[in-house]
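Onboarding guide, step 5: your first structure request.
Type a short instruction followed by the sequence, for example:

Predict the 3D structure of this protein.
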Amino acid sequence: MRCCSCGGLSLRVLCDRCRETLFSPTVHTRTVGTLDIISFYRYSTLEPLLLSKHKPEGWRIYRELGKMLFRPFMKEFIEHDDGTVYIVGVDENVKSGYSHVAQLTHAMKMKHAIVQPASLRAGNHVNYSGKPLQYRLEHPRDFVYSGKKDVNVILVDDI
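The system replies with structure tokens like these:
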């Protein structure tokens, strides 16, 4: 098999060299209203892997990204938080045979981290791919939440 990042020979989806060089996080936090948005990587670093979501190997890549990036974050978060947190994937729709966001949320499941599968769904399916912010503001997706209410939540999206 080949590494999905560099193309070198590897028994795993991503070779050891790519795991070490590409995936050292640079945490960035920005606040929108009262919501903290935390990013761990620059989009340009992960773009080729994220765009694999509609290819046959996409489910393997997203599963590996969940294990490598989201699971360690959740372990660290649980160590420093004294309560239960719920994990909610943004619009966990099945496309190309699987839900790429569900692959990420599943990796975060732990004793005090409860996944709420498919609990935040878009009321309409406007495609935002490549669209500017103004287009997104003019065409809201009208999300509906059906999960547990009045709980601490971590929202997970692939971008």
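Each response can be followed by summary notes, for example: The chain has five helices and seven strands.
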